[in-house]
């Protein structure tokens, strides 16, 4: 049936002047002297020619500029490299120097099988020492542990035997318990400190769902309660369980984590969390319940997979406890069934304005670039990928480069900055890895290629899609593109309305075929097409995004090529395995085609002939102009840009009898369409003066992206 669906170590920037670099400058100054002398020596004996004087003056002018910089030591190549700060495993020795996130005690095995909430109970108490009480979900009792050694010191009965107990807190006089009581709302119970004299306080007034998790007393008339499925934290009455407000949202909006602690020294919450992208708890953030903004993220991914309860060493019942001598946090890791104590951030964080100008992108190799408006007021900017700290740099850097090891995939990039104990809120973006190949041309038949409104018709068998193809025709030198020389195709970008790999699958296959149609016009018959390129891709689970099919190597599409792009869905082998390409109804200059033998469409057929006149499938081309590959600034064609290139360019420009450049484009260092002294100065500045602009692309072997300039490149030995 044919259905239309409902719709890593990266270093910090350093500037240094080494002796060999200064020597290079001195050598160049000496070269200037020799070249000037040679020029004068070869002059006509009858007198100086005006043109020669001008040439010699030009050489001296450039050389004197460099000579002055040599004398003042200002020629220091900026050695910019990439760096990230790796996260070392926490040290188990609390006596050694520790930093926030380091382990103070543990892991200590828990006595039950499935722990959830916890709370701190100072002495005097039934066990005679400061204790951490950890709730056991499916047992009639919970356990008390020594707050320092984490050794078990006793048990305590649950207030409602046979029920599921999910949270615990104390005001120092009584214990308060969260009990799941399906199908009705969760309940709040109160007992004495030894678990006796249990009393049902009332139903817990959660605002989204009825399943309560961890609890934390706020030192007044409220208890913070975790809404396990509602992705938020509600403040309820300690007297009857009713909702008091406010509510605080999950720091990642949705994701892993169950537990909450009240930090009485600043009236903030400590919340463990992890995004859906991470699939586990990665972070503890400090949240001001008045602003609902998480600050000061603390990575805890190396401690546990699913944190099911936390407690502050400064809870309302004991505001200055700190049994380890520093602010600390007890952590219940449900995945390993262990109890930890880690060092927290000693000072309460203060909020700074958000980072401005934040953006992120990825290239074809999975490299990630994060940029923001430079802010010297931020001492450090932290970059996290899927909740894990990937790197740090200064706020004034304005950018960070890193890499994602897993692709194809969608990752979450998060950025925040801080100075001392002042933190900016976290900014984030989702990135599809890998990104698109860069290219001068983006050819699309759609007037609005970036919008995805709907899905295209897809042929399904009831349990997944069948084998079928989507097609588009491109003639790059004809209307509407009118390219002068054709296209060096580097990527095909397609719109994905929804990709669902199905149970047990992470990606699904998609086949890209590029054909030449010697007949032109209609795609049919398929047998007449000439295959130019075929490449298999894996599509991750995505929704409403563009996916880049980056080619292994560029494909030349000249003016005599009628390019037919085929996106082939292979037969689904998994139930619910479904891939829907995206479309929009904005104007297009040529329509897409569809073929699906299982649905009776044996040959490619225009969408309008199938009754889908407003379905404009998103299949676009990315590439560069056709032409000889070269490296801008590599004038001698040795595959590198250095001082010898500047010397060679000066000789070509000013010394009589020297050969011309076989690739004039390589000498056009500033890409202004001409060859002159300004190009040599531009290259020397780039090589020797920090923060000077780079020569425009191509910086690696590639065609001239400024196809309109008059310069040509006939031969360039530096590129294969």
Mean pLDDT: 85
How much helical structure, as a percent, in the residues?
Answer: 10-25%
Largest sheet: 7 strands, antiparallel
β-strand number = 47
Strand content: 35-45%
Q: Please give the alpha-carbon distance between the first and last residues.
A: 50 Å
Task: Give Rg in angstroms.
Answer: 33 Å
Overall structural class, as computed from helix and strand content, comes to mainly beta
Low-confidence stretches: 1-97
Shape: flat
Number of helices: 5
Describe what this molecule looks like in 3D:
By secondary structure, the chain is mostly beta strands. It has five helices and 47 strands. The strands form eleven sheets. Strands 34, 35, 38, 41, 43, 46 and 47 form a seven-stranded antiparallel sheet that branches. α1 runs antiparallel to α2 and α3 (643-654) packs antiparallel against α5 (677-688). It is flat and about 100 Å long.
From the structure above, extract its key features.
7-stranded antiparallel sheet; 720 residues; mainly beta; disordered N terminus; 6-stranded mixed sheet
Quick summary of this structure?
The protein has 720 residues and is mostly beta strands. It is built from five helices and 47 strands.
Question: What order do the helices and strands come in, and which of them pair?
Answer:
Layout (H helix, E strand, L loop, with lengths): L1 E2 L10 E2 L3 H23 L8 H22 L6 E2 L23 E7 L5 E7 L9 E6 L4 E6 L5 E6 L6 E7 L4 E6 L6 E5 L7 E5 L8 E6 L4 E6 L4 E6 L5 E7 L5 E2 L4 E3 L4 E8 L7 E6 L4 E7 L7 E6 L15 E6 L4 E6 L6 E2 L7 E4 L4 E5 L8 E6 L2 E6 L5 E5 L5 E11 L2 E2 L3 E7 L7 E3 L10 E2 L2 E2 L8 E7 L12 E14 L6 E10 L13 E11 L2 E15 L5 E7 L8 E7 L8 E4 L4 E6 L9 E2 L1 E7 L17 H12 L9 H4 L9 H12 L32
Parallel strand pairs: 25-32
Antiparallel strand pairs: 1-36, 2-3, 4-24, 5-6, 6-7, 7-8, 9-10, 10-11, 11-12, 13-14, 14-15, 15-16, 17-19, 18-19, 19-20, 20-21, 22-23, 23-24, 26-27, 27-30, 28-29, 28-31, 31-32, 31-33, 34-47, 35-43, 37-42, 37-44, 38-41, 38-43, 38-47, 39-40, 39-42, 43-46, 44-45
Helix pairs in contact: 1-2, 3-5
């Amino acid at each position: 049936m044919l259905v239309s669906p409902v719709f890593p170590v990266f270093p910090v920037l350093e500037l240094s002047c080494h002796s060999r670099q200064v020597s290079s400058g001195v050598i160049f100054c000496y070269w200037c002297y020799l070249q000037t002398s040679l020029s004068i020596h070869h002059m006509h004996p009858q007198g100086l020619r005006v043109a020669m004087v001008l040439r010699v003056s030009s050489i001296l002018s450039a050389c004197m500029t460099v000579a002055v910089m040599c004398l003042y030591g200002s020629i220091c190549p900026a050695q910019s490299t990439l760096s990230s700060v790796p996260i070392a495993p926490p040290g188990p020795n609390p006596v050694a120097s520790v930093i926030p996130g380091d382990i103070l005690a543990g892991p200590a095995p828990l006595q039950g099988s499935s722990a959830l909430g916890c709370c701190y109970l100072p002495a005097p108490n039934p066990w005679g020492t400061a204790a951490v009480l950890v709730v056991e979900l499916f047992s009639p009792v919970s356990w008390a542990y020594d707050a320092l050694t984490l050794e078990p010191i006793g048990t305590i009965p649950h207030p409602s035997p046979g029920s599921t107990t999910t949270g615990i807190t104390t005001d120092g006089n009584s214990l308060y318990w969260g009990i799941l009581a399906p199908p009705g709302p969760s309940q709040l119970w109160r007992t004495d400190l030894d678990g006796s004299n249990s009393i049902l306080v009332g139903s817990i007034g959660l605002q989204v769902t009825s399943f309560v998790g961890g609890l934390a007393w706020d030192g007044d008339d409220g208890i913070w309660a975790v809404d396990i499925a509602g992705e938020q934290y509600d403040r309820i009455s300690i007297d009857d369980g009713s909702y008091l407000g406010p509510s605080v949202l999950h720091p990642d909006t949705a994701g892993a984590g169950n537990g909450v602690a009240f930090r009485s020294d600043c009236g903030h919450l400590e919340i463990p969390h992890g995004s859906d992208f991470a699939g586990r708890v990665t972070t503890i953030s400090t949240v001001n319940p008045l602003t609902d903004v998480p600050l000061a993220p603390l990575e805890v991914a190396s401690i546990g997979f699913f944190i099911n309860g936390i407690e502050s060493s400064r809870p309302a019942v004991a505001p200055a406890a700190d049994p380890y001598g520093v602010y600390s946090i007890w952590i219940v890791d449900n995945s390993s069934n262990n109890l930890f104590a880690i060092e927290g951030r000693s000072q309460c964080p203060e909020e700074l304005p958000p980072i401005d100008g934040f953006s992120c992108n990825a290239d074809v190799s999975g490299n990630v670039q994060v940029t923001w408006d430079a802010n010297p007021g931020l001492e450090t900017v932290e970059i996290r990928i899927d909740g894990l700290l990937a790197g740090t740099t200064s706020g004034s850097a304005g950018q960070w480069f890193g890499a994602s090891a897993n692709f194809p995939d969608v990752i979450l990039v998060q950025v925040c900055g801080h100075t001392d104990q002042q933190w900016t809120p976290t900014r984030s973006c989702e990135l599809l890895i890998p990104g698109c190949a860069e290219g001068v041309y983006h050819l699309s038949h759609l007037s609005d290629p970036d919008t995805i409104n709907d899905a295209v018709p897809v042929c399904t068998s009831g349990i997944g899609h069948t084998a079928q193809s989507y097609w588009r025709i491109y003639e790059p030198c004809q209307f509407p593109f009118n390219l002068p020389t054709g296209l060096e195709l580097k990527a095909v970008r397609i719109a994905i309305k929804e990709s669902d790999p199905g149970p047990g699958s992470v990606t699904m296959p998609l086949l890209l075929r590029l054909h030449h149609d010697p007949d032109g016009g209609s795609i049919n018959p398929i047998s007449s097409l000439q295959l130019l390129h075929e490449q298999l891709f894996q599509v991750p689970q995505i929704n409403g995004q563009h996916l880049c099919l980056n080619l292994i190597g560029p494909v030349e599409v000249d003016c005599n090529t009628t390019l037919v792009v085929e996106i082939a869905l292979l037969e689904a082998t998994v139930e619910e395995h479904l891939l829907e390409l995206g479309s929009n109804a904005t104007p297009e200059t040529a329509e897409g085609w569809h073929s699906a033998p299982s649905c009776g469409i044996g040959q490619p057929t225009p969408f309008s002939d199938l009754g889908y006149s407003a379905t404009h499938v998103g299949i676009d081309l990315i590439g560069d102009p056709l032409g000889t590959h070269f490296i801008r600034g590599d004038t001698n064609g040795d595959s590198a840009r250095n001082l010898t290139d500047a010397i060679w360019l000066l000789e070509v420009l000013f010394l009589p009898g020297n050969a011309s450049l076989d690739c004039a484009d390589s000498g056009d260092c500033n890409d202004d369409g001409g060859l002159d002294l300004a190009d040599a100065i531009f290259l020397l500045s780039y090589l020797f003066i920090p923060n000077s602009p780079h020569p425009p692309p191509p910086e690696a072997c590639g065609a001239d992206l400024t196809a309109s300039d008059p310069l040509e490149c006939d031969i360039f030995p530096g590129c294969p």
